[in-house]
């Protein structure tokens, strides 16, 4: 049976590394938990580490965090949908916003619930996902700060998540300048300039974070220790917080090319036959995970001496060559994962989640 291990000591190691890093630079930060897909055991681990600000894109996950520890500040990190407004006010202390229409709904609901709701206005800086266009920001803010029970506590931006636009010193300076313009024009303080995500952390190492940036929200670098500029593990961090374990459920010597008339498989793919492999055989193993759990391209094969042939909904096929290592049915094969692979596995009902 396939299962996923979260190594508590390795997570704590990375958390300690980042805590020291941000403290050295005088930065506040929160942890993005959306990767954990609301897993109660894993969310509890975050809280036990001492984290007191958790960000997520699913309101059901924020509800679970509040059930575990009401004192944690929860941040909803995508523009809210109209049908979620009541729950946003109930379970998110802070939300990220880009639409006045939505903010008016949040204001009305906050008044009904007799709560003060904090918001971060997201600013477009080039990646073309969420964000108010810079030329519209002053007028947008002017309308927002009159809304009852709404407190603008920050300006933020998001990069690299859609088109792959990387953060830069210039883009972060631009965000800081928006803060200065608004504060001077309206004589109001904006405490957070939330320009930092996991992809921005490497700019700290090269001292390219402008002084105005004072808040980070990070997930991927905490769980994978990955420098997203170099795709290498950050020196001093761990890349093995998560590990997927799969079991061999069949192993058989088979032809290396399929036999028969070819058509599209259920994924719409038409397999191209390599005629040079006709008549050749190798050992193929079937593992007990499939596309319902993970896309094979997000498995890290470093350290393994086999190739992934492909996957169906519930099974993954690997080519062991002549099986020189002597794999057999029942053997367990571990994999480290890329971020999107871990996200799929954590969202899979069929893979057991463990703490090691």
Keywords:
eight-stranded mixed beta sheet; 28% helix; eight-stranded parallel barrel; alpha/beta; 356 residues; Lyase, Ornithine Decarboxylase, Chain A, domain 1; 2 domains; TIM Barrel
Gist?
This protein is of the alpha/beta class and 356 residues long.
Given the C-alpha coordinates, what overall shape results? elongated
CATH class of the largest domain: Alpha Beta
Q: Going by CATH, what is the homologous superfamily of the largest domain? A: Alanine racemase
Structural class: alpha/beta
Radius of gyration: 24 Å
Number of strands: 18
- Biggest sheet layout: 8 strands, mixed
Contiguous low-pLDDT stretches (5 residues minimum) are none
Question: Which whole number gives the mean pLDDT?
Answer: 95
H/E element string? EHEHEHEHEHEHEHEHEHEEEEEEEEHE
* End-to-end C-alpha gap: 17 Å
Total helices: the number is 10
Query: What is the architecture of the largest domain at the second tier of CATH?
Result: Alpha-Beta Barrel
Number of discrete domains = 2
List strands and helices in order, with pairings.
Blueprint: E1 3-6, H1 8-24, E2 28-32, H2 40-49, E3 53-56, H3 59-68, E4 73-76, H4 85-91, E5 94-97, H5 100-113, E6 117-122, H6 137-144, E7 150-156, H7 169-186, E8 192-196, H8 202-205, E9 215-218, H9 220-224, E10 226-227, E11 232-233, E12 242-255, E13 281-287, E14 299-300, E15 307-311, E16 316-319, E17 332-337, H10 339-346, E18 352-355
Parallel strand pairs: 1-18, 2-3, 2-9, 3-4, 4-5, 5-6, 6-7, 7-8, 8-9
Antiparallel strand pairs: 1-12, 10-11, 12-13, 12-17, 13-16, 14-17, 15-16
Helix pairs in contact: 3-4, 4-5, 6-7
